[in-house]
Fold:
Amino acid sequence: MVVVERMLQLLQHGSFQSTYKYAVLIGIMDLCVEMTSARGWPPQVLTTRQLAEKVVALYWPQVRAWDGGRLAQTRNRDAAIPKAVAALRDAATAEVSAGAGVGRVAAAMPKRYAATVDAVELRLVTQPLPRLQRINGEDTGWLYDIAWDLDHLPTAGQIRRRDFDNRLHLRPDVATTFARLHGLLRPFVEEAWARHVARVNALEQDRLRQFLFGASRADLEPVRAPLLDLQAGRCFFCEDRLTAKAAVVDHFIPWSRHPDNGLENLVVAHADCNNHKRDHLAAAPHVARWRARDPDALAQLAAAHRWEAPHDRTLGAARGLYLGLPEGSRLWLEGRTFERVDPRALRPLLR
Structure:
């Protein structure tokens, strides 16, 4: 549990002038889940590009208007990351739609999106990444190794040209801990992030948490009817008839366990089925049905609606969450019925 202790020490005693370090922590956690292999092994190496894309996604809901303005994320004037994300969101409001998710914007505005990721990557490389592991003035080196430090930073040109070693080599046990305890550790960092934003903006924290990290079902409305057609007018979970009026979009992998609005993670269901499933992982029969969906049909639907459908990322997240479950864990089957996890049944489904 050394990794957990180190992370808690960082949250308690680290220096946080902005929310960048929180974003890096959550980004690394999410990547450890999403990049889990078919054998259940999380990644040992990440790149600054992968991390920058995650950070853009994290700030995406946070740069929406709050009481007529935008929330401050830093104690000083350096707010380069949220400003870059906000500029992309403003452009997307005009060119795509006001409620478009970041994945949809990436598909619809690839050049503008890539330029935003470039700007975020530059800031991550030069600011939080070489500073994050300092606790009480000591560089602890508990999380990752990188090929640069504050005295030897890559130039902006090198970063833009990818002319530097952009790898983060995760320290022993970091990836495994982050993948297996993702559902416990991520909320700790979210809570610390929300506290920071509340202090900077002189607001009550309780109002902020849902705004900063909650899921918005309104954003999913464009794919509700197409998903219902793909499911032949039936609820994904109970398989009974489902009318367009009664259909609700559900995250197969619960948002509370891993935020993912990609089409691969979306199904439509009865409100009752959705409410019973809630934040639970679905049982093996549902996983089998989820994996049996037509990938070509999903790809066509995604292209038609300019929606992201990150097959590998969503499947990796499912592997990270399911294959790391401890013995005796219970998975939702129907109504108030649960079944015990059976790794032998799940593993072949998640290959």
